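User: quick one, fold this
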Amino acid sequence: MNALFFDHPGYLDTLTWLGTPVHLPAGSAVLRPAAPDLQDARGSWPYQSPPSAGLLTALAQQGNALNLTAVIRPDISVWALQSSLQAVRETFALTVSPLKDHLCHSATRPAARETYSARTLRRLDEARRTFTVQREVFGPSHLVIAQWQERIRQRRNVPHISSPDAAHFTALANLPLRMKEGLACITLRRRQGGALAGIFLAMEDAETGNWHAHSALSEEAAIAEFGNYLLFDGAIDILKGQDLWFGGAPGGANGAGVFRFKQRFSNHAAPAHIVSVDLDSISLDRLRAERGHFDFLPDYRDPRAELGLRQEAG
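Assistant:
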């Protein structure tokens, strides 16, 4: 249980920017207000393993959880996902929809390095003259990453629900050392002086040994000096022998450009899925009658509010 780092209760305790973490014997979730005197639940960020029937039943029995919506890890097949949700379907109404593709460097496929373009190789050579890449233990000295995250959030208008806050990174830095064994902190440092210029964070699945990216951020100067090329290439090398999932296109402006950048270092892709489970059908019927249905999950939440989209003038 909790083999994937993102499923661990200690990790969910760092997600306070999304709501209030709650821990039950059958699993964890994040509660958030949905209507007066009512809450719904969301899963871990950026994704998680399929929720268990036991967790969903426990949330429903609390009496104020309308629904649980969660993004499901991309390294589980559609068949395995549907199979794992069979017991849930016997009790609850649920929706399963494919989400965007997530990129991966698979250890069992030809290395992406074999297909690097001449331009990518030149940029890697240039970056190696300026930077080094190594693995370190994530701690307080790395918390500049929160500033880099906030800069990206503001510049690209990244939705709040997709952008961890400073408290999240501080909580990660303060996790017990034993738990941080499953957190890989790959750093980009300047050869002259050793200043920190970039960080790639990845979390482990202890059962498979595979890794899942959490963040890849750097200072602006390092981007112009092709440091991110070396950071991704170095992460593959340091975590070699296991699959490394890079995530999909991020929210906000230039998401497609970031996706194309990550494709250089990938040799495999698969979609994540979103699962939305209704836990209180009576209250949800009433809420949907008041708010209407949206092309979003959960479908009673207005995506303009959830994603910070501007409402078009009527």
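User: anything notable?
Assistant: The chain is about 35% helix and 25% strand.
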